[in-house]
Structure formats: structure tokens, C-alpha cells
Amino acid sequence: MPELPEVEVIRLGLSRKIIGLKIQKIQVLSPKSFLGNPNLVQGQKVLNIWRKAKILGVELSGDKTLLFHLKMSGQLVWKGESGKGEGERFIGGHPTIDMVGQMPNSHTRVIFSFAGGSHLYFNDQRKFGWVKVVQSAKLKVQSEGILGKLGPEPLDKGFAWQVLKQNLLKHKNMPVKVAIMDQSVVSGVGNIYANEACFDARLDPRTKVGSLTDEQFTRLHHGIVKSLQDGIKHGGSTRAHFVDAEGHKGYFLDYAFVYWRDKHACKVCGTEIKKVTLGGRGTYLCPKCQKAV
Ligand SMILES: [Zn+2]
């Protein structure tokens, strides 16, 4: 499943391709994958692309916004006029072999055709993902349910360590790693980056929230922001190798300190990385660098 950095990499890449283009035609091949009236976006121009947690918002003229949620298996493929050559194709999301093949394919759910001849394909093998058209003005007041329920955006300036502390204290008895993955505490932290954030903060992921000191909350806050930023810098990551909007692979995992590195030596102290299960998820830690409180 794409995590926040992967979605941010798509936002950056797609912005370079479709901002300023007019949607000439929209074809909904799977009604389940498109919520709202597709005719509302026809003829509208792409003004901006933003992200909140793992949701992409494509802001259009005419007070419309298209929301995309890739969920488990969604991907976005943009193809230029000819669809050939470097920079003429633009891929992001769940990696599959057919994402570099013929478009549309059997997993294509929605096709956006732009004036000028390029296309954006929303593909989704398992159909958990969706595209939704909403009024932009409504989103601004956060009345859109899905956005309202999400916690603060970790890469916004307003996300201070005190905000994290306050939100985490709702879960005093929860292990810290499980708590930072609660989307109402902070939005968009999945399993990979939760593991990395705890390592950066030198905290045992099993530590109970209620026992953290202010200094540890500060370190944890730093760890969350830094691991997400590193993920974006390295083009995102998934175990199957994330492919970004221009077909570059993401190699964040080569830079990870603990995630997926059990039985390997800690990059800081050489101790063997240990794997445990916490809240049903694979959890990786260095027993020496990450102290229990
Ligand atoms: Zn270590």
C-alpha cells in the first residue's frame, strides 16, 4: 500500500504534467471507482494538486476538486500525446508489471482525456481505491467527512511536538509505535515510517505512551518528520519497489535503518536488528539503540 511519501512523490510528479491542462473527456469504466457526477469535471482546467495524508486533491476550475485515494492497489498513469519516450509517461502508486504496458488495461477504472491529447489512467486491481468529485469551497471549511477525521498533516509547519504529545496522550496505555499509526493522532504514518521514526527517536516501539518524557516526545516528533522527508527524498518505497511518476524506482528501503532489516547489523552500532510483532504488524528495532523507558 502506498504510504504518505509515495503519494507526495506522485503529487510532485503529476503537478509537472497536468497543471494547466483542460479535462476534455472523462470515461468511467467502473462506476464503483468514481463517486459523484463525472460530467461536473468535463471542460474544467487543473489549477493545483495538493495532498492531505494519503489523499490527493486535484483542484479544478469551476469550484470542483477531484479527490483520489489509491488504497491497496490503486495507481495513476499519465501518458503524453504519443505515449513514447522519456518523460512521456508518468507512473505512481501500487507497482505492477502492466503499469508500463498498454493503456488502458483490464484494471483501468477511470480515464481522463486532456486537451492536447494526453491521458490520465486510474487503475485499481482490487477496486478499494476511488476518485470523488467534490466542491472545492466545501473542502476549505473541512466539512468533507473524510478529511475532517484525519489528524494533523505531519509535514505542515503547524505540526509541533506539543500537538503530537497532546494527541498521543489519548492513548496512554498504547505502545508508542501503534499510537503514531492512528490516523487521528497524525495523518499518513504507516508501518514503514512508524518503525523508522521510533529508531530515529531511539525509543523502543513497545514503550507505553504514558511513560514518555517531553524530551522523548520531541525526539519522536523529529523522527516522524525526518523519516517521511527522507522517504520523499529517496522517491518513496515499497517492498516491491515503488515506481514514481516518471517510472523511477523508489529505493528508500536501501536507506532504512530498521524496517525489513531483521538479522542485519544496525547501521549505527552493529547490533543485530530484531523483529517482533506489535499490534499485528511487523516491528523492527535495534535492542541497543532503542531503549525501553
Ligand atoms: Zn543500534
From TrEMBL:
<dbReference type="GO" id="GO:0008270">
    <property type="term" value="F:zinc ion binding"/>
</dbReference>
<dbReference type="InterPro" id="IPR010979">
    <property type="entry name" value="Ribosomal_uS13-like_H2TH"/>
</dbReference>
<comment type="similarity">
    <text>Belongs to the FPG family.</text>
</comment>
<keyword id="KW-0511">Multifunctional enzyme</keyword>
<protein>
    <submittedName>
        <fullName>DNA-formamidopyrimidine glycosylase</fullName>
    </submittedName>
</protein>
<keyword id="KW-0227">DNA damage</keyword>
<keyword id="KW-0234">DNA repair</keyword>
<dbReference type="Pfam" id="PF06827">
    <property type="entry name" value="zf-FPG_IleRS"/>
</dbReference>
<dbReference type="InterPro" id="IPR000214">
    <property type="entry name" value="Znf_DNA_glyclase/AP_lyase"/>
</dbReference>
<dbReference type="Pfam" id="PF06831">
    <property type="entry name" value="H2TH"/>
</dbReference>
<dbReference type="InterPro" id="IPR010663">
    <property type="entry name" value="Znf_FPG/IleRS"/>
</dbReference>
<dbReference type="GO" id="GO:0003684">
    <property type="term" value="F:damaged DNA binding"/>
</dbReference>
<dbReference type="InterPro" id="IPR015886">
    <property type="entry name" value="H2TH_FPG"/>
</dbReference>
<dbReference type="GO" id="GO:0140078">
    <property type="term" value="F:class I DNA-(apurinic or apyrimidinic site) endonuclease activity"/>
</dbReference>
<dbReference type="GO" id="GO:0034039">
    <property type="term" value="F:8-oxo-7,8-dihydroguanine DNA N-glycosylase activity"/>
</dbReference>
<keyword id="KW-0862">Zinc</keyword>
<keyword id="KW-0238">DNA-binding</keyword>
<feature type="domain" description="FPG-type">
    <location>
        <begin position="257"/>
        <end position="291"/>
    </location>
</feature>
<dbReference type="InterPro" id="IPR020629">
    <property type="entry name" value="FPG_Glyclase"/>
</dbReference>
<keyword id="KW-0326">Glycosidase</keyword>
<dbReference type="GO" id="GO:0006284">
    <property type="term" value="P:base-excision repair"/>
</dbReference>
<keyword id="KW-0378">Hydrolase</keyword>
<keyword id="KW-0479">Metal-binding</keyword>
<comment type="subunit">
    <text>Monomer.</text>
</comment>
<dbReference type="Pfam" id="PF01149">
    <property type="entry name" value="Fapy_DNA_glyco"/>
</dbReference>
<keyword id="KW-0456">Lyase</keyword>
<dbReference type="InterPro" id="IPR035937">
    <property type="entry name" value="FPG_N"/>
</dbReference>
<dbReference type="InterPro" id="IPR012319">
    <property type="entry name" value="FPG_cat"/>
</dbReference>
<dbReference type="InterPro" id="IPR015887">
    <property type="entry name" value="DNA_glyclase_Znf_dom_DNA_BS"/>
</dbReference>
<keyword id="KW-0863">Zinc-finger</keyword>
<feature type="domain" description="Formamidopyrimidine-DNA glycosylase catalytic">
    <location>
        <begin position="2"/>
        <end position="129"/>
    </location>
</feature>
